[in-house]
Amino acid sequence: MTRTPAPRIPLATLEEGTPFAARHIGPDAADEAKMLAQVGFGSLDELTAAAVPEAVRDASGLRLPEARDEAAVLAELRSLAARNTVLHSMIGLGYHGTFTPPVIQRNVLENPAWYTAYTPYQPEISQGRLEALLNFQTVVADLTGLPTAGASLLDEGTAAAEAMALARRVGKGKGGVFLVDADCLPQTIAVVRTRAEPTGVELVVADLAGGIPEDVAGRGLFGVLLQYPGASGALRDPRPVIERAHELGAVVTLATDLLALTLLASPGELGADIAVGSSQRFGVPMAFGGPHAGFMAVREGYARNLPGRLVGVSRDAAGRPAHRLALQTREQHIRREKATSNICTAQVLLAVMAGMYAVYHGPEGLATIARRTHRYAALLAAGLRDGGVEVVHDAFFDTVTARVPGRAAAVVEAARRAGVNLRLTDADHVGVSCDETTGRAQLAAVWSAFGVAGDAFGIEGLDARTPDALPGTLVRRDSYLGHPVFHRYRSETEMLRYLRRLADRDYALDRGMIPLGSCTMKLNATVEMAAVTWPEFAQLHPFAPLEQAEGYLELIRELESRLAEITGYDRVSLQPNAGSQGELAGLLAVRAYHRANGQPQRTVCLIPSSAHGTNAASAAMAGLKVVVVATRANGDVDAEDLRAKIDAHREELAVLMVTYPSTHGVFEADIAAICAAVHEAGGQVYVDGANLNALVGLARPGRFGADVSHLNLHKTFCIPHGGGGPGVGPVAVRAHLAPYLPGHPLQPAAGPAGGGTGPVSAAPWGSAGILPISWAYLRLMGAAGLRRATQVAVLGANYVASRLEPHYPVLFTGPGGLVAHECVIDLRPLTKATGVTIDDVAKRLIDYGFHAPTMSFPVAGTLMIEPTESENLAELDRFCSAMIAIRTEIDRVGAGEWPREDNPLRNAPHTAEQLCGEWPHPYSRREAAYPSGASQESKYWPPVRRIDGAFGDRNLLCSCPPVADYADQAD
């Protein structure tokens, strides 16, 4: 039989392969056609024209490099990485070399079961990462000697600033002075200074080695910040300063080092009220400054004032212990401008790593690492002294400051030529920090750089005659990390299985769709993640000489430029390491702009009532007065009320903060007119970039009237949420605000030429270590891919809204009855008629194999659904089918077939253990575990039943329960 030869395909076509955009975007052409038919449009462009108001549409196209395939992008990243020079860092200043145990690197940092998880607001399906965070909290609480630690903060500098705010709230001191020791980390002092001035705090920096100056004491203190050990390495007993501060009614914060605390007396024992710091050296790479998990621990009585998140132990419906977020979770949504903090993101992924580092090493292993680190520092100092070099301090943990009059720069340069970076403190002083990675070769190189003869392989004699440099009065006497979890997992086999067990208790994006409105849980492609752990990106110190970071700087410049092009702004700063920090940076820029123009009275910030809670909290932190603007029934800003508020505050108006598309998930048609009205009154317009996933390639805030936005790289630009962090929240501005972007005292190149407004994050470029993710996403997608991704995200939301509307009212729509990239469905009428709540629906979705949508935001009693562009039609239909089946279940409750207090929704989620026991319910086990349409092939079994949140708040327990509790449970 004669076969017809296949048609020849041109080589150029074969070389193109499958574009990355087709891998990222879930629906294929056939899916897309079916979805468009459902919503009544013939093409994506037709849908876009109908949904996106003409006044904001941008037809000019994005000037971005052409998309490249995965191999080519990896090659480009390799080329950039090769331009970084990674020397052995002994710079210190809060950033240290560390060995990330490979079992933790591979099975946490590089594992999508951990990095694609969302914040644990649904605790029943977050028990794994909640346990891991409880471990972290226990590490921090035990080592600091303070009873309550949070689930992580953004970095050490911002943690210190949060401690200042906490001290102001709870302190009894008379006056507005916050006193900071001059030996605190310089970046911490700078961040605290940035945060102090707008809120009216008088910041005084002084040398506290001799105690609190009496002139400062007489002006009234509410708080004191000390570094223990100091930035210079000096290890002083802080008790006299703490006691004097307490006499004055001030709250004392110790910024400290967890590794040092394995050997040193804890802040709690010394009398401190608050301890802050960074857990970076517990197995988290320096990564040019971040991301790293900051920490805060507080004394008894302060727990309810902690900023950020707190993991607590509660119980489930069966009475078994279960973990959940406690107390103030997302409290800024309730208290708004009166919130204790604007933080909405933690550093969960990095906190998990640090906690697991402690689990893997245990207290003995951590102490051994600390002792080795200290011995190298002690030997380094002894060798310098033997060579005639003056060592400034006799007591230190890991950092030695040497005085070499007039030749400090020459010493630093000599060490650099030998492959070691030291810290140039000033013309006469050099700082040298030892860490877990320090060895004899580094000591020899440093001695040589100082002109001291030393033999890296003959230091046993020096070791034998050199005492430790830890004062006896500060040596730790008490034990720590006594819980069994810190003693069980010494072999890699056991550690691997522990990490797997915890991951299996969670629901992350690697299992299925997470349809969270406002939070954009979409594909974080493996290729985008690849470079994060490359040593050339992961091992660079943030204060390394910039000529050693040429690849990083080029990547940063390109990412800033491409984000500016996408948003229509002129300049972008990547320093803010969370959306909340980006908000603050943007508002500080607006405030500085008005003050520079001689209009300091412009302090009013207009915010719609529907806005994300962090908006109001950030405004208050920036020293602005919040005035609320009403929202109309359809979700739009009430234009009439807005005009009235503008007129009432015309001379004081600083800025309007709006989210676009709106928080209600609609494109407001009159946004350009709103911007014009604010500008006419002399104000600025801040567009919250939380919903940028509906705009990329279609509209640009900087072109339709906005002056400033923060962006969420962990939403629109594919940095994964990591179980609640890391995030990156760059701030983008038009040219007139560019001089007021954040600067940094240790790396001026990170900010505008004039120095900017001061840093909002401790590291110059924030969480630089994860910027390759977003850089890769933009490079892989190109302009056309980005535009199509946005269009498909809008299509997906409208498809879901169309399918669910016959069963649940869609609360807000824009032109033509369309939504943007998310939709809000209203359960309030059903709750009133049947007693079934959104909690019941959210927990029942677990039985169907889904994470719940966003609950009660922006309206109580509603669910906000965002499918994103990454989910294909089959997954969207699976979700819609589950929601429709749940509506049928609700109807059965309403009809009296199932009692209001005993039905599959009220009892959800159902565990395997529950199904194996007695069954007193009026529905079957099959209906409980395998409801109509739920997959039986890959059933996710929740590890606990519904959790009693109120019990956990009444009986607050925020570290690993006592061993006796576990023994009782076993019995």
Automatic annotation (TrEMBL):
One MF term in the entry's GO annotations: glycine binding
**Enzyme class (EC, first level):** oxidoreductase
One GO cellular-component annotation of the UniProt record comes to: cytosol
Q: Which residues carry this modification: N6-(pyridoxal phosphate)lysine?
A: 715
Question: Which keywords, in A-to-Z order, does the entry hold?
Answer: Oxidoreductase, Pyridoxal phosphate
- EC number(s) per entry: 1.4.4.2
Q: Which Pfam families match?
A: GcvP2_C (PF21478), GDC-P (PF02347)
- One BP term from GO: glycine decarboxylation via glycine cleavage system
Quote the InterPro entries the UniProt record gives: GcvP (IPR003437), GDC-P_C (IPR049316), GDC-P_N (IPR049315), GDC_P (IPR020581), PyrdxlP-dep_Trfase (IPR015424), PyrdxlP-dep_Trfase_major (IPR015421), PyrdxlP-dep_Trfase_small (IPR015422)
Q: Which residues form the Glycine dehydrogenase C-terminal domain?
A: 789-910
Q: Which residues form the Glycine cleavage system P-protein N-terminal domain?
A: 23-450, 456-743
Subunit structure, briefly? Answer: The glycine cleavage system is composed of four proteins: P, T, L and H.
Per the record, the similarity remark reads: Belongs to the GcvP family.
General function of this protein:
The glycine cleavage system catalyzes the degradation of glycine. The P protein binds the alpha-amino group of glycine through its pyridoxal phosphate cofactor; CO(2) is released and the remaining methylamine moiety is then transferred to the lipoamide cofactor of the H protein.
Name the UniProt record assigns to this protein? Glycine dehydrogenase (decarboxylating)
The protein's organism comes out as Streptomyces hoynatensis
